[in-house]
Inverse folding.
């Protein structure tokens, strides 16, 4: 009997264009805290982790890295 090859499923979000790029500066409001203690913001549903922030903070950030399902940023103005 021939074995079936299992195809790896790719999440659709990996294929979609990201709403931010590395180096972009955006204003966001921190919505929550991640398990690692970083602030979490969203732009069009895309998750951005920002260290040294807390929920309710309104900050200007610079995007430092982009991954398929999230980005990281740094605060440039509180």
């Amino acid at each position: 009997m021939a074995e079936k090859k299992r195809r790896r499923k790719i999440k659709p979000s990996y294929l979609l264009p990201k709403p931010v790029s590395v180096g972009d500066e955006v204003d966001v409001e921190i919505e929550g805290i991640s398990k690692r203690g970083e602030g979490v913001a969203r732009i069009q549903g895309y998750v951005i982790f920002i260290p040294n922030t807390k929920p309710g903070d309104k900050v200007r950030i610079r995007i430092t890295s982009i991954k398929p399902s999230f980005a990281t940023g740094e605060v440039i103005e509180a």
Notes: Strands lie at 25-29, 32-33, 39-43, 46-50, 58-66, 70-77.
